[in-house]
Each structure stands twice: as C-alpha cells, then as structure tokens.
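Geranylgeranyl diphosphate synthase type I
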Amino acid sequence: MAERLRLVDLVHARITGFLDDRASHLDSVADELGVFIDASRDLLAGGKRFRALFAYWGWQAVAGSARPDDPLATLDEHPDIDAVIDVAAALELFQGAALVHDDIMDNSDTRRGKPAAHRRFEAEHRAREWAGSDRVYGTSTALLLGDLLLGWSDELLDDGLGRVADRRAARAARDEFRTMRTEVMLGQYLDIYEEVAWRDADERDQLPRAHRVVTYKSAKYSIEAPLAIGALMAGGTPEQVEALRAFGLPLGVAFQLRDDLLGVFGDPEITGKPAGDDLREGKRTVIIALARAGLPSGPRALIDELLGDPELTAHQVATLQATIRDSGAVETVESIISRSVADALAALEAAPISRAAQRELEGLADLVTRRSS
C-alpha cells in the first residue's frame, strides 16, 4: 500500500509540474486561457490513478523479473524510472481527455462529485452574463479542453519515451499507445451507436454487441493497454506481454462491469454521479442486455420505454432498478465479474514476470473489481 501511494504521489507531482509548465505558455498568449489550466487541475486532481498504476506495474513486471523477489524499493534508481512516471502521467491526461468528451456525449452534469467540464463553463458564462448561449459556449470550450488534454498527453508520452535508452522498446510502447487511442475512439462511437441503433440488432446480438462496447471503450484501455505499454517500455518479451494481456483483458471487463452496476445502482454520495445516471443516459450495457433477455415482454417494454429519458424521476429510476433486479441480471453480472477475475488471476499465476509485480497486480485486481465508486 505504501508503495502504491508513493507512486500515486509521484504521478500527481509530474502532472502538476507539467500543467505548471503549460500554464506559462498559455499565460504568454492571453490571460483568459487560464480557464483551461484551472479546469485541468481540478479534473486531474481526482481519480484513482488505475491506468498509471497498471502502466507502472506492467513495467516493473519486466524490469524486476531479473530479481523476482526484490521489493519495489530496489528499483527506485532504475535509469528509466522517470520515463515510466512520465508515461503513467500521460495515461492520466489521456483519461482526462476521454472523460471530458464522454461527459459531453452523455450530457452528464457531474464528474467526480463536481460539475462536468461543459457544465462548469456554462456556469461561468451565466455568472458573467456573457452574450450568446451558455450551452454552446460550455460545450465548445469543453471540447477544446478535451482536445488540449489529448494533445498534452501525447507530449508527455513523448517526454517519457524519449528518455528510454532502448529505442526499439520505446517505439513498441508508442505503437501500443496509438492502438489504444484509436480503439478508445472506436469504442466511444460504438457506445453512442448502440444507444440509438439498438432496435436494428437481432435480439440474440444484444449481449455480444454490449460486450463489444465493454471491450473497446473501457476494458482494453483501462487495464490491458497500460500494462502492455509499461511492459513494452521495459523491453518485455512476447511471452511476458501476452501473459499480461491475458491478465489485463478479463480484468478490464470485470472492471467495466462493476462500473456498469454502479451506474445503475451506485450511491451518488460515493460515486459522485446521480443515482441511475446510466439509465437516464440510455446506456445499452451488458446488464441491460441480460435484463431484457431475462424478462417477459411487458417488463422488457418498460425498460425500452424509459431507458434513455433524461427526465426520469426518482420513482421511475427506482422502478427500472427493481425491474432489472427482478430479471436476475445483477446476479449474472456478478457471476461474470467473478469468473473474469478468476481467469485474470489464473493467467497471472503462470506469467513469467517479477514476483513483486505479480503480488501487486493480484491486489489491484481485487481493488478495481470490489470498489464502490
């Protein structure tokens, strides 16, 4: 735990320093541009740093494999440690960009218990009584913020990979990052596509299509890709990288399925999002596909009628929650989560990696799938 907290602190310090540097550039252009730095600081101050943690331990899994039983402290003087912190921080900036854009697409009001970026900018527009539409201003400014964070994540990634002595390893990590970035965008599209085009799909295809969204929008880039990026930076062998992928993908699926359950049943005091937020947004998640498959026509029609209505009342949210529970979908999703975690741990047990990394990854598997926010 102490090592994990130390890593989180190092990544946070790198993000803070990076934003300080970019603030000087923005200030030299115009004072008004400080809104982007302020919003970035607030957004990036929160979060659990899961992607940074998995990137680091993917690297340590390979870099520490020559000393399988040594603790983390023996690697503190590794020549690539600063590079790894840079890349871990870059993944957090990428996550920030994805969240800003995701909140716009989902028309979300909050993020981590605070106003989503576009709502923040809308509120500023209203408070200053500026001309034009507060909604247009808020959305446009948030889009630019997301674009800035996306570009900045690339700059920070280049800073980190530029420090890696093994240029072949650096190129492999860069290629993995590019693939991750493309697949996240594709997964985002598939997510919004399913919200509007689900009637076009055969009923038998609802579940595999929902699983496809889980895989590409979240599972791969939340855990599998960060692990692979870290391992590739360290010059991981194909066997090491594939073993980490075999651990990361099922764990990423379990991670997102837990998130889907929280999106329907989570406590807003803990999640920082309104109760039943995914129901108002019309998310066609695995739990919705399972619920529809397990319900007779009447309750299934109720889900189809109410899901995606942004004006759902608390009573309607409770009705949908009860209907989903009655379908048996919650128990099925919990079973899938348990099976996915078991598959991930089985892959990890035989992985040719550092024993210290293996122990830490086992702990992270429990952390990301048993969370309440």
